[in-house]
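Encode chain A's predicted structure.
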Amino acid sequence: MATPERDIFFGLFNDSFPPVMDGVTLTVKNYAEWLRLSGFKPCVVTPDAPVRPEVPYPVMRYFSLPIASRPPYRYGYPRLDFSIKRRLRSTPFAIAHAHSPFSAGRLALYTARAQGIPLVGTFHSKYRTDLEHSLRRFPWMVDRVMSRVLNFFNQCDQVWIPQAQVEDTVREYGYRGEVHVVENGNDMAGIPAEALTIRKHEARKKLGFPEGVPALLFVGQHILEKGVEVILDALILLRRRGIPFIMNYIGTGYAVPQLRARIEREGLSDCVRLHGLLQDRSLLADYYAASDLFLFPSFYDNAPLVVREAAAMGTPSVIPAGSTASEVIRDGQNGLLCQRTPQAYSSVIEHVASQPRLASEIGLRARASLVRSWEDVMREVAARYIDIIKNRKR
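Encoded structure for chain A:
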């Protein structure tokens, strides 16, 4: 795909980047890595952070402060960074792609206008839910900020969504323009399906999981919006019914202290573990592989990468029926759907535990239907970028 666009930068703008890790951060990180491997020049624009991991492409950081209600996230303040706009103007961008409508999105919009280049915005999250939590002391501000979010997307040349059903949320927020579905990829897609059984067995052995005991997993922000307490309530029901299990929570978030307190109070410390954030992707893949079920009782997420990561390792997800994430799940075929209640989740876990082969069979079908490599996705993304750039020049 030899084009003159390779001589200038593709700008990737987001309000978080490693060491902060979530699904959108991982998406931006993979965009940058695969664009670079394809011969293009990515440049990430993101708020500054105390730790700056080294990466083989430029990362332009601007002034930020920690968000007290959502550690370890930080909020960028471009107005307090007197060099950021000059740096953006002096960097030759071919396109600006905003993965957030907030401070990074505003800088993407500024860059697009200053350089006369196209602006793409991806609608990743349920922003109103985030704002309702962050601004719970100032609820009157939610509609005001959401108006700015909508205004941002209305100024984009293209708006992308990672999954078709996300359009329902976009329309609910008031966006009336055209949307384009551009899926996310999976950096665990390279393991051959025929090697999964061995990998899962080796991962259980490596992590010390006893055979015959259901291993359960949650990966993501430990926030109430994602249903982390629904999982814990389901585990309490299982313990009362005498059903053995191992549960692993991986991630961080404001709900960690209350989860830890409840685990201790309920006497679950022997079988429920809080691991914190795992930066080692290979170790995270082991946890996915070693687990029988991935529990994800979230109405908050649009197209969660973690569900596809679990599928890549042959582990099916249990997802609330009617959630946006459930669009890609066929109950009993490539995942399991149920109500978002502790009773429903505990029943599904007990049902799968009683049929040892069921999880592996569903997991293999999940892998076949839900997993797409980042390499494949980024071929599509690069082609779309070039098409957008060429159309803008006409």
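The chain has 14 helices and 15 strands.
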